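Forwarding the complex inputs:
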Amino acid sequence: MSATLLVRRDIDFILHDWLKVGGAIDREAVDGLLDLSEKLASEQFLPHFKRADIEEPELTPDGVRVCPPIGDALGSYAELGLFSASFREEFGGLDLPHVVCQASFAYFAAANIATAAYPMLTVANARLITTFGTPEQIEKFALPEIAGRWFGTMCLSEPQAGSSLADIRTRADADGEDDLGHRYRLTGNKMWISGGDQDVSENIVHLVLAKVPAADGRLPEGTEGLSLFIVPKVLPDGARNDIVVAGLNHKMGYRGTANCLLNFGENGGALGWLVGKPGQGLRQMFHMMNEARIGVGLGAAALAYRSYRLSVAYARERTQGRAIGVRSGPPVPIITHPDVKRMLLTQKIYAEGALALCLYCAQLVDRADDPESMLLLGLLTPVAKTWSSEYGLAACDLAIQIHGGYGYTRDFDVEQLWRDNRLNPIHEGTTGIQATDLLGRKILRDDGQALKALFATMQGTIARASSVPALAPRGIELDQAWCAVSAALAVLKDRAPAKAMDNATPFLWAFGHLVMAWVWLEQACTAAHLEGQTADERAFQEGKLRACHFFFETELPKIDAWLTSTTSLSDLASAASENHF
Amino acid sequence: MSATLLVRRDIDFILHDWLKVGGAIDREAVDGLLDLSEKLASEQFLPHFKRADIEEPELTPDGVRVCPPIGDALGSYAELGLFSASFREEFGGLDLPHVVCQASFAYFAAANIATAAYPMLTVANARLITTFGTPEQIEKFALPEIAGRWFGTMCLSEPQAGSSLADIRTRADADGEDDLGHRYRLTGNKMWISGGDQDVSENIVHLVLAKVPAADGRLPEGTEGLSLFIVPKVLPDGARNDIVVAGLNHKMGYRGTANCLLNFGENGGALGWLVGKPGQGLRQMFHMMNEARIGVGLGAAALAYRSYRLSVAYARERTQGRAIGVRSGPPVPIITHPDVKRMLLTQKIYAEGALALCLYCAQLVDRADDPESMLLLGLLTPVAKTWSSEYGLAACDLAIQIHGGYGYTRDFDVEQLWRDNRLNPIHEGTTGIQATDLLGRKILRDDGQALKALFATMQGTIARASSVPALAPRGIELDQAWCAVSAALAVLKDRAPAKAMDNATPFLWAFGHLVMAWVWLEQACTAAHLEGQTADERAFQEGKLRACHFFFETELPKIDAWLTSTTSLSDLASAASENHF
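Prediction (whole assembly, two chains):
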């Protein structure tokens, strides 16, 4: 069975033919990074994909032990400079564009997302410190992370505060000041901490959201009182900080990523240093949120992508049955059956579409100086996160179906990819939270600038499609879908905010499909202009065009069904009483 | 956390208020069976739900060992006469209607589907023998199964022949005749045999599809050459038959059900007795197929149902966040959030709808003497199997989402229910196979009688709905959906059969939603006429009505999207080349 993680021609297509990252960076550097990523992911991440699922992290008196090859793989990842790739040279980085680093990361996520989660979290953590920390904090905490010697975590959730960060109860009491800044003693319990402990890195840098008590000793209400603290596992003087692993969560998938319940301050308070100013914690976290959420979407897309490639390989090899009406002769490869082709093409539009969208968003991250790009990034982030997670999971589901009974066994990888991917609609903000973010914060409470930026972008695509005869009708359909979504928004804008949000999730689905139709039309326009010289290249081009048409034919019409409850302002669900269930 | 498996009021509603099984059977007998089922399922099937997932069946030199409480639970199931419930008195049965037995079975499937699979298979096996076997075969093999002392299996698939039974290579060579009939020696490998071996029952009765070689020694091609054989693990003389467990399949879910690769005849041939005549094997199997497929659908519905009830219980207990616009005060139970209500109501339409449809079909099974009921049963079976499996899985998925991060851990049951349910779209004919069965065999190759029977049934419902003001518009929408499906069929009927089948699966989804809209309108009409005296009863009634409206508002509009590719006769998928993927 082929172990293709991602199709390199497709990555090149997205990065160079479509996004044209070549203008900003030497092509050879990109190729080198992708070659290296594919090789390392295949040789050191993929081989323990199953083993780390079986040999789960274990809580010992000395802390959490993870499956040993995880440490070996991450050691190589550090040695090759991959932790540092996206950081500026002043921080010891390679200063590569985010979009290129994310393409590299997709290989590791496809091969073994549970192992890849450690560097993903570490990089996000280090970026937050380099953005908001003091030079001393950066040198002490971020640089060892960028070198891959220390790992990082994000400590937001608590047992009673998952989606609702306003209810965080972890407390930070002032404890003087030193060269690392204002020092505090932290007390509280943090839940769902990925990488919360492990035996791989020399130290762990926890970034902890906590509340500084007011003069009367009480914690402030709401999210405004949240501050962010650097709380290392090992203190600068070499002593262990007051942090205890109270337990491990035993997950259905993503098992190689140790997920901990951490108790801070059972013995007087864990030492931590304030990042930036008090009360800025959530804002600082949100600064990183787009990146983190696109990272989740990208991981989901990568899992979907590998499921898809495994399905193609299996469907080519597995023989079963014959064409309708044929009753003798040898069985044929199942890839010749129309229903299997339908499933593969569906996987293709989900997996390749999600990957393309997430890399498009990653390119927006690189344009931090352009306000319009930032507006677009904010608007597209909940889509990139949710659409990739939900439809990526659907692609993994189809992989099991294509594999039949074999796909339901642990002898094949597709069942684990499905289990792993099930986390993605939950963490970094559930689908429901993303829907609220999209419809509430990004649309109804925005002054329309973000939507206007998207509209302009889509109109550009439609104009380009109009010059390609086969694609012009799809441009018109995209325009119609835009109008349908706009009409629904017009209805919502006249309503009380709480009522308007009742059907935020179906709206997100409709909006997500609108965006994905645009992504596919973009890809098709790009593919239409490829000058395919070889049979492989022409097949690649035809595959992209076929997938675009398939999306418009089978998926785009669903928008109307989702908008029904939005435009009717239905309260069938929201007005239900508890005892109706 | 409440451990409600199924809501008894709902089961009573389906059986008595809607299906009116009371005419055929004493209400007290039904109540007694359901009380008993709920109690036994809760007390003996539910407690080892997780344990049997962890302690998988093990292959030892003495055969397969299963987790011990499985045997205890099935012992009680036998003692209480539950294996025999649906059999006629002459076979030692209780002669209860199939629909009532299926309602009983739903409790066991909800509690622990992997353990419940053993009696499900055994009953299907025994029914086949009582239908087609000789009196001697019935006495020797079926009666011990009906008593629950022996268990049964269905041996159809082989490693190279899953969906394509024409390619079966297991061979049966004539070996004389005795009081049990024509004796054969069987040689071949059977794959995916649920309950293929275990250490619970005294003996195992395998029903094996195999081919009798022609005079030249070659096996006949196609499915016409398939015959059915009774091949017991222990022979009537007490000797072990020539059957070896070559391996166990390690599944993602349904783990308590030992799933085996069985080698027949490694040492000269396993002894087996022909059932009925040679070449009738597939026809005999198909005679049981409706029942088996509805059983799969019912199991899927039961898993969905428990997921739904667990979600309701969790959503009532778990507090998180506040209503939009409220910024202080204690967190509220998540059941008050509109998006959680939306997910719960979606679970309700999937789980209760699927259960109602499967029990409706089970009632049709009881009307074997009525040709119109049999036509309807044939038409609805692929829907009951597939819709319940696919949307039941979606309900389980929502259960994880409602539970958030907790739902992704093995501390809660919902992740296992999701894993267990993933088998249902695969076994007893995949979704693709069901789609071919529906559109090909049951519609395009039928003379229209089955569709006519469904049309008449739906028109009756629409007429009843017209007298309830709140439901009359839904009747019109159901009629419109029927017209849309009929219009698509009119296009397909003019096409070459192979082309018409290209989009059989999207057609199945559209047809499935049409059927489910009818099921919900039936339930709503029934609920509208309930004379609710208590608050609970009125809430039950309102819940059914709300769910019906919700199905029509959020689900029914999807039909149009699925029919698009059917009516356009799209070949975007079917004409794709291998290298487009």
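DSSP finds 17 helices and ten strands in chain A.
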